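Appendix B. Raw example, untouched.
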Amino acid sequence: MNNQKIRLFSLVIKILILIIINSLAFNRLMPDMSLNGYWLLTCLLNALLGAELITPFFVRPVDALTYSITAIIAFLPLHSVTAEKMLSFNAYFVAIWFFIFILCLSIFSILFNKSTNLSLAKMANSFRITLEYLGSPILIFTILLIYTGYAFHKDSSTEIIGIAFAWGLTIAIDPIKNLISAYNRILFTFKEKIVASEIGSIAAYQQPDIILVREEVLTSHSFASPIFINDSRGEQIIGITLDHVGREEGILLRCLFISHAKANTYSLYRGILQPDKAYLLNDNLVHKDYPILSSYSDMMGLIGQGSGIDSIQIEIISDESIHEGCLVEANIKDNQVLYQIIDGLTKKEIVEKKNTFGYVSARARKIGRWVVEDNKFQHIQWLPKINSPVRLRQIEDYIPKANAIGHFPGTNYTVEIEDINSLVTHNKAILGILGVGKSMLSIELVERMLTAGIKVICLDLTNQYEKELEIYYDKNAANISLEKIKAAGEKDREEINDNPEDGGSFPALSQAIFEDIKEFIESPTLNLKIYNPARLSGTKQISEPKSYNAGGKWHRSAGLYSLSPVEITEIISNACLDILSAEMTDKARVCLVYEEAHSLIPEWNSVVNEGDKTATAGTARAILQGRKYGLGCLLITQRTANVTKTILNQCNSIFAMRTFDNTGVDFISNYIGIEYANILSSLPERHAVYFGKSSSCENPVLIKLNDREIFKTIFRKQS
């Protein structure tokens, strides 16, 4: 039986007692409806209703205001009775002024309890505390009862005794409620089902929400078993078991506070169970009253010290199924926010005196709250409370989706390319060692661009793109174009000119490439162009011609050298910029793909040829200026240190895969943070840390990339 039912039942019993006493003292079953009986009935009912139903626990200022006004209204007519009965006017005025005093305190407390004036607020709060005692219905209506009882019944000892008994049995002593409580406790002790078994005594509190229990009784319990803490100096607590942390006059068991015990279920425990003890509860019984306990079965740790807004430190309690990249869940202001584990280490902590225990701590970066309608994560501000639970997201079978570039390992949460135009115009880079899936990711990105109507020019030294993207590639047209370019590269190879820029086959080759790219960009049917710079050749004059005499004849000569892949790359990049610069746009039009970028746009200190340094600078200028014309790039490299940082620094979106060299890790950490950068060396194949304007996530995330064959099946079917 809950407390409300008990109070209602108690009220009914007390009313019956009043009727019985009334019949014995006044020789009538129902109260006298004259003035004499009216005052008595009013006082008793107001006291009972106030104590049992309206304010059974504490009195608020508004309640005290109501009681005082009721008492004043009831007391004012007694002025004439006081004169008629020749009662003491001093007692009358003391009582009436007491009620007025309570009224004034109530009004002041209500008006100034939230005042910005600190002194007024403190005074209002002190009045509120005073009213909890002086403003109770029992005190106010007892004063009224004594006065009216004496005024109307002082001549009858039988009536006075009856009124005293009624007051004592229903208001002062309150035996009815005590008898009901005792009955419930006795009944509880004879229940067949054992609902609690003692574990030990309370050893200490580790604020917030951690309780240390010194185990004194050998019991069998598993992680997250429900327990009851019977604290004699505080409220009764429902919690769960965590782990053992040391030994100090008994084994220390850590427990986590979940909730204060509900009165309707555990109000009897304090009298039956020993104080300051912990008890293991029956799972089935407690889960009915506390369904929230079921949600702790997948708890893997607690929010630890050192947690911040962007990342949290997790004290691992259950490390089953935990690995880098897995998702965990913590609560921030009633929002279930997902974090991604990115690092782990061991720690040691002192607990209760000289005990220490070691544990594993994990670092996790905030991802956000998953919004089903938008199919992406929403950023949630602030951080979880320390010692609040962290749950492991359950392993799910991934269902491939055409729009997803990848998914969080072990889950069905996907990461998408938020804006394909931003992916191109703001540039992107795929960085990682050989054999981890860089080219397959690049080819997937290219396929997405082609489907979106963006033209792609691949500078491919690996010859993979032609094979993987054959359905988008017109090989016959490409062969015809390449033959023209090769012919231009052979033309005038040994020709020298007074103007070095016009010497060699460089002018003809540049013009042929320009015309080929212009035709490609203007074509309504062609979307993919592939060049292998290593298979294109030409010569360039590097100095003014000089005359010399040999065999009696004068000759002219100048330095000619073969163009390198780096210089071919510059010719192609500049041609794209020249063609597109006729029209400014914020939409992506052409993407240049630099496969094996360390060989096509090398860092200045990675080459000895001055021509390559100049060419790399020229390519970088084309990319820097190309954004406003819809030109962007995708660079792929296994040697981050050897790629020009002028272009790398312009890449807004980064896919960082397994990397070992310190230069690469240091560079990548500027984008994804040192925490993610530190795990790059241990990333599995087809895993990457993705971050940038094009991502559907606002923060860096570790994802498992699509399988190439599965992607082709799903994406091409949808397209």
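End of appendix B.
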